[in-house]
Amino acid sequence: MGLSAHDAFAAGGGRRSRRRYGRGRRGTLSEINVTPLVDVMLVLLIIFMISAPLLTVGVPVELPKTEAGAMQDQPEPLTVSIRADGSIFLGEDQVAFSQLTGRMRAQAGADAKKPVYVRADGKASYEIVAQVMAALSTSGFTSINLITDTGGPVSTGEEAPA
């Protein structure tokens, strides 16, 4: 009587191989590969670091340099820019000096304590800068800040390190 190969294994006469599922070479991988995630996050970080300084609203002016440090960011200040030729801008809109305080009050609404940033070109006339700051002060704005660039000469007469 002859046995087939199937019958031999069923009867226990042959060699059996056991597979251990989950521990073998071809088991499922239960770890998450975070390398692509880190790559994407680093690219996004670089993009935001490059584009954040470009998001500042205003008219291009060359700010004077002083030894004062940078201010802490405050939410949505009103910005008045003065170019070297004496033209005045509220945000990005050019305004006449006679209309400045009315437009500032309209933008500030009831919040007269809202900070006002005055960005004047370093070559702008001191007279126009003083007139703008005085007009803002007499119209009820109490927090008027003059914006400068850092890295100017220090009070000891030496140049600041670049």
Structure description:
With 162 residues, the protein is α/β, with parallel strands linked by helices. 28% of the residues lie in helices and 15% in strands. The chain contains four helices and seven strands, in the order H-H-E-E-E-E-H-E-H-E-E. The chain has helices at residues 5-10, 35-51, 100-108, 126-138; strands at residues 65-66, 78-82, 88-90, 93-95, 116-120, 144-147, 149-150. The strands form two sheets. The protein has a five-stranded mixed β-sheet, with helices on one face.
Summary of the model, kept short:
This protein is an alpha/beta fold and 162 residues long. The chain has helices at residues 5-10, 35-51, 100-108, 126-138; strands at residues 65-66, 78-82, 88-90, 93-95, 116-120, 144-147, 149-150.
Order of strands in the sheet with the most strands?
4-3-2-5-6
How large is the share of residues in beta strands? 5-15%
Topology order in helix (H) and strand (E) letters: HHEEEEHEHEE
pLDDT < 50 stretches: none
Mean pLDDT, all residues: 76
Structural class: alpha/beta
Question: In one word, what is the shape?
Answer: elongated
What's the end-to-end separation, in Å? 99 Å
- What does the main sheet amount to? 5 strands, mixed
Query: Count of DSSP E strands?
Result: 7
Radius of gyration over all CA atoms, rounded: 35 Å
What's the helix count? Answer: 4
Fraction of helical residues: 25-40%
